[in-house]
Amino acid sequence: MITGNTLLRSAAPEGREEVRDLLDPSAPGGPDRLFAGAAALKEQAVGLEIYLRGIVEFSNICAKDCLYCGIRRSNRRVERYRMEEDEIIDAALDAYRSGFTSVLLQAGERTDREFIELAERVVRRLKEITSGGIGITLSLGEQEAATYRRWFKAGAHRYLLRIETSSPRLYRRYHPAGHDHALRKRCLDDLRRIGYQVGSGILIGLPGQTADDLAEDVLFLKEMDVDMIGMGPYIPHRDTPLFDRASGFSPGRQLELGLRMIAVCRLLMPDINIAATTALQALSPEGWRRGIRAGANVVMPNFTPARYRAAYSIYEGKPAAGDGADPLAELERLFAGLPEKIVTGRWGDSPRFLKRKMPDTTG
User: Fold this and answer.
1) d(Cα 75, Cα 72) in Å, to the nearest integer?
2) Residue 56: which of 302, 244, 234 has the closest Cα?
3) Per-residue confidence band for 361, with pLDDT thresholds at 50, 70 and 90
4) Is the pTM of this model over 0.90?
5) Domains of the chain listed by start with CATH number
6) Residues in CB range of 262: below 8 A, 6 or more apart
7) Can you say how many angstroms the Cα of residue 273 is from the centroid of all Cα atoms in its chain?
């Protein structure tokens, strides 16, 4: 059986080469052994539980201009929106009352006072309304440390900030001037110091990205000692500059690479939370099931009101998971027959984070 021990020594060149070989779709034996090893290690480290996060995408107004993203600042074809405060609260409570004890509040990146105060009020109100019962993850981009502290004090306790690529060189390729890779990493450091459960991730299969680049990404996430990972395969959007460079895009290849990345991250980081992201489901109706079997343990259905969803088009073909009358029952049908079972009534915090926070009793 493959174990995490076979891929240690993350700082050594042979560690990178071993990770790269596991990511190679042409490697002998196919992916079955890799996925089986990741699934077995997941069972040992975090159990056979699927934790849920209800996503609310409350604004697609973004100050960033990333070359791969459909809601980039320069895209004039997207209809911009910002949900009202009560709308955000109602959507999050809809998820909470449907059995999704944790929510993920996500939006385009802004640093203005109006945005910061809106997020702070929403977090505080949600905690007050639910008597602290709701778990809140934020994914609101790069902010000053003081802003992160405000949101943490209001009641947010997890934060997802994808590094997108660990390579400063590739980061410059996919982002125009004014986007700073070092700042993004510094934000991750700030979040850790403040006390958040810190999540990050990368875009998988970008044009020009190599297996070596992805191996370095995995080792970067391990070195950062993240508590959770949310990453997904790159899916082109026609209203972005990167679209013309994605002529060889293959949904099947992207899905396979995304699953391999989940499995390899599980092998190197056994006790963290790893999401089967929506992009997997966009590539295949079996994407979430296969992601869970490859080592993921978190799923994040969408609770953004239907009238806004099409406008949050970071990539094309986003699935409408969660639109059913009973989202929880819909997911239980989707995962029927798997060893993993959906868990409700618990936040599903990262075991890695909880271990780090445990007091040292060794004397």
Assistant:
1) 6
2) 302
3) very low
4) yes
5) 4-343 (3.20.20.70)
6) 38, 231, 274, 276, 291, 294, 295, 296
7) 10
